[in-house]
């Protein structure tokens, strides 16, 4: 099985598609901006991501049936029938991922030096980007919502070799210049991995006690080997550098290592039992009732490939345990069924990006190094940095910043300023973090026919989840970096002197990294309020079976979800650090959505049935924007559109 995907994303990724108002009065060449105060969309980069996955599977199964009835009917009624099943499966998966991006180059300008961008091709400064104006001036608008959007984003995809004249700042000559730049399509990212999963399983299913007891006992063993692409030496003069000197990806790394990066093996056991009330031997239940009870225990293993934490430790695959128990009651000769189930699930080693802070934990160090390198290149005196408490020179400041990262993480990312003044580093391949959780809940399901032509189903579910052990190694590194920033005298230094920002290094790190991490840690041991506790689903369909309306039917569905937390005010912990106040969460509204449909069916021929149905999806819905995120001060930060109402017709033929 082969899967290929190509994705082009010029717009910002994620849920937020940002719309701006251009407030720049002048362009970079000091000419008055003709588009001032117009709404504009930024196309941050023109990137093509390509993914390919090839999976090969070999599976063999076999079973043996043993029915004691075949040997002795009297004994067999109690000892019953048994099925022993065996499984062997070998599943190999090869995946590759590449990233191509359009960047600026020049035949006449040394773009990677201080003459222009001062950065290699993988730097964001070199990315080709566009501003697309989508409406007239919003000068008379008093709120953002009053800005008029009249145009679509319709920009041609760049072409390798396109040439453009543009103004740029020459950091060496200290003057603005006009030059010709060339668009280049370069490969900036590549990755490759292979997983080999070998599974063996044996299960025994038994029907005993005259089919009043059904049991299943299963054993399974999984072994997963994960192979990663060749790792870099982390230096430009090594055998396998991560990038070429121009910043493009080193294609020599696009091959697998000989030995697996991880080799994980897990055995799991599953047990279940279902017992049916023996009316035949005890007494008849009323209302045409049947009664059954069930119990289940199962262990799980989720193949996840190779991943490691921020200190370079290999992370094992997620594993879990689930217990379920409950009963089923069927009434009126099985025309109505009631099922009640209770469960508890515990999982360890679940993956998390810790609110998007994984890359920023050490990535901010690289941002600061590049910012101060730019300041040094532009000739900003070290004395103007307000950095005397941390260092006495630029080179000493670089060392101080790098040393905020504790070992062994510092050696893994290996930030450095090379001989040409570029800030370079290594990647921690497949970086992730983990958390554990325990989830408890119950589910009630009622399905049946109130009449032969009237079906109803009702599902009510409750769930509560408690997280624990969130990002154990990652959080330690983040909080140590924060403390090292304080101890080293970096706290009050503005983190980007060339842009004239006033935000300090400590303020930036806390707002982007350590505060979100503390917010995650604060959830440990508490019920997850972001999860909707209750859900109810109701579906009904009524069919007319006589009279003029014969063949017509009408039905509908209702879906209700409980409220959930969408933000928290801030509080201070015992050390004076800001954390979310979980006891005073901001909650979003509960949600109610519903569908309705009308259908008609008839027989066209003896062996051909036709059914036409008009569907109105989300006929019942809220017409208001739905709050998603609330800031700590209670102000709305992110909303989403209400679910769209869809009207469509389906035709079904059965023969």
Please outline what is shown here.
The protein is mainly beta and 655 residues long.
How does this structure look, described?
The chain has 655 residues and is mainly beta. The chain has helices at residues 73-79, 360-377, 394-402, 409-413, 472-487, 505-522; strands at 2-8, 19-21, 39-43, 47-67, 81-105, 130-133, 163-170, 175-208, 213-228, 262-276, 290-301, 319-331, 336-352, 416-417, 423-424, 433-451, 454-468, 534-543, 552-561, 565-567, 570-572, 578-580, 586-587, 591-605, 608-620, 626-630, 636-640, 646-654. It contains 6 helices and 28 strands. The chain starts with a strand and ends with a strand. The radius of gyration is 32 Å and the shape is globular. The strands form 6 sheets. It has a 17-stranded antiparallel sheet that branches. The protein has a 3-stranded antiparallel sheet with strand order 2-3-6, with no helix packed on it.
Helix content: 10-25%
Beta-strand segment tally: 28
Beta percentage is over 45%
Uncertain regions spanning at least 5 consecutive residues? 234-238
Structural class: mainly beta
Inertia-based shape: globular
The oligomeric state is single chain
Rounded radius of gyration (Å): 32 Å
* Largest sheet features: 17 strands, antiparallel
Instruction: Give the CA-CA distance, first to last residue.
Output: 32 Å
Q: Roughly what is the average pLDDT, rounded to an integer?
A: 90
Total helices: the number is: 6
């Amino acid at each position: 099985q082969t899967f290929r995907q190509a994705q082009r994303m010029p717009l910002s990724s994620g849920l937020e598609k940002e719309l701006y108002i251009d407030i720049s009065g002048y362009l970079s060449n000091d000419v008055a901006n003709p588009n001032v105060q117009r709404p504009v969309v930024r196309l941050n980069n023109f990137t093509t991501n390509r993914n390919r996955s090839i999976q090969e599977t070999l599976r063999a199964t076999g079973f043996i049936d043993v029915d004691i009835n075949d040997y002795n009917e009297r004994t067999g009624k109690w000892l019953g029938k048994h099925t022993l099943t065996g499984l062997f499966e070998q599943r190999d998966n090869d995946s590759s991922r590449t990233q191509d991006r359009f960047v600026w180059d020049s035949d006449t300008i040394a773009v990677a030096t201080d003459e222009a961008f001062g950065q290699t091709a993988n730097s964001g400064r070199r990315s080709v980007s566009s501003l697309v104006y989508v409406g007239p001036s919003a000068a008379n608008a008093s709120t953002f919502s009053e800005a008029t959007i009249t145009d679509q984003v319709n920009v041609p995809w760049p072409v390798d070799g396109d040439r453009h004249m543009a103004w740029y700042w020459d950091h060496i000559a200290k003057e603005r210049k006009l030059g010709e730049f060339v668009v280049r399509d370069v490969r900036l990212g590549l990755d490759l991995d292979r997983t080999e999963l070998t599974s063996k399983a044996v299960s025994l299913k038994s029907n005993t006690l005259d089919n009043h007891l059904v049991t299943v006992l299963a054993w399974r063993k999984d072994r997963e080997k994960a192979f990663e692409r060749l790792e870099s030496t982390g230096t430009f003069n090594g055998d396998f550098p991560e990038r070429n000197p121009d910043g493009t990806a080193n294609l020599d790394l696009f091959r697998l290592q000989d030995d697996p990066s991880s080799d994980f093996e897990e055995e799991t056991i599953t047990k279940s039992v279902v017992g049916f009330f023996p009316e035949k031997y005890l007494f008849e239940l009323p209302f045409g009732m049947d009664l059954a009870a069930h119990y289940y225990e199962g262990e799980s293993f989720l193949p996840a490939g190779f991943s490691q934490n921020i200190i370079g430790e290999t992370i094992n695959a997620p594993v879990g345990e689930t217990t379920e128990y409950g009963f089923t009651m069927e009434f009126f000769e099985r025309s109505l069924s009631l099922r009640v189930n209770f469960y508890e699930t515990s999982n360890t080693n679940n993956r998390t990006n810790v609110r998007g802070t994984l890359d920023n934990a050490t990535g901010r160090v690289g941002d600061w190094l590049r910012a101060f390198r730019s300041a040094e290149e532009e000739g900003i005196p070290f004395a103007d940095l307000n950095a005397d408490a941390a260092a006495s020179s630029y080179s000493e400041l670089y060392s101080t910043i790098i040393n905020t990262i504790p070992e062994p993480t510092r050696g893994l990312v290996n930030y450095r300023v090379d001989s040409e003044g570029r800030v370079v580093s290594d990647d921690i391949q497949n970086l992730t973090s983990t958390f554990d959780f325990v989830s408890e809940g119950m589910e009630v399901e009622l399905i049946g026919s109130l009449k032969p032509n009237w079906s109803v189903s009702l599902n009510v579910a409750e769930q509560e989840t408690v997280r624990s052990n969130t990002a154990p190694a990652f959080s330690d590194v983040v909080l140590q970096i924060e403390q090292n920033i304080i101890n080293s005298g970096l706290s009050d230094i503005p983190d980007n002197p060339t842009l004239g920002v006033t935000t300090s290094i400590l303020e930036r790190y806390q707002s982007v990294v350590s505060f979100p991490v503390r917010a995650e840690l604060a959830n440990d041991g508490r019920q997850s309020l972001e999860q909707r506790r209750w859900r109810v689903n109701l579906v009904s369909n009524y069919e007319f079976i006589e009279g003029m309306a014969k063949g017509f039917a009408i039905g509908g569905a209702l879906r209700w979800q409980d409220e959930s937390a969408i933000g928290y005010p801030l509080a201070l912990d015992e050390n004076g650090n800001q954390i979310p106040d979980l006891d005073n969460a901001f909650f979003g509204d509960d949600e109610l959505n519903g569908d309705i449909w009308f259908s008609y069916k008839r027989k066209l021929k003896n062996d051909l049935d036709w059914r036409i149905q008009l569907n109105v999806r989300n006929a019942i819905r809220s017409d208001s924007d739905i709050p998603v995120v609330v800031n700590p001060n209670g102000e709305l930060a992110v909303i989403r559109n209400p679910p769209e109402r869809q009207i469509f017709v389906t035709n079904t033929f059965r023969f």
